[in-house]
Amino acid sequence: MILFGVGISMGSALLSTKAAAWLANQLMTVFGLASMGVFMVFAILAAFLIVVHLGFAVPRPLPLR
After folding, report:
1. 23 and 17 in contact (C-beta within 8 Å)?
2. Which residues, at least 6 apart from 14, have a Cβ–Cβ distance to it below 8 Å?
3. What is the pLDDT of residue 8?
4. Contacts of 13 (CB under 8 A, 6+ apart)
5. For helices 19-30 and 2-16, what crossing angle results, to 10°?
6. pLDDT number for residue 52
7. Contact 62/55 with Cβ under 8 angstroms?
8. pLDDT, block means (10 residues), the chain with 65 residues
9. Helix (DSSP H) and strand (DSSP E) numbers for the chain
10. Four-CA torsion 45, 22, 29, 7, nearest 10 degrees
11. What's the confidence (pLDDT) of residue 65?
């Protein structure tokens, strides 16, 4: 419950101070996403979300090898 409260509060603070746009621009520049096409960015995001989902949905940790 605390995790959700902190996440919502942090998201609201980032949006109200316009820090979310700054952070998004920094991430786009650092990871080189600005030069990629929209489909490639969505493919990377989908792959990341699948890995994160598997990490949380599986009852035991995934092996690292």
Report:
1. no
2. 20, 23
3. 94
4. 19
5. 90
6. 87
7. yes
8. 90 94 92 89 92 77 65
9. 3, 0
10. -30
11. 64
CA pair distance 48, 51, nearest whole angstrom: 5
- Please state, in angstroms and as integers, the Cα–Cα distance from residue 7 to each residue in 23, 49, 54, following that order: 16, 18, 21
2 to each of 10, 12, 20, 52, how far by Cα in Å?
A: 12, 15, 22, 20
* Residue matched to tokens 């621009």: 25
Token couple for 26: 């920094």
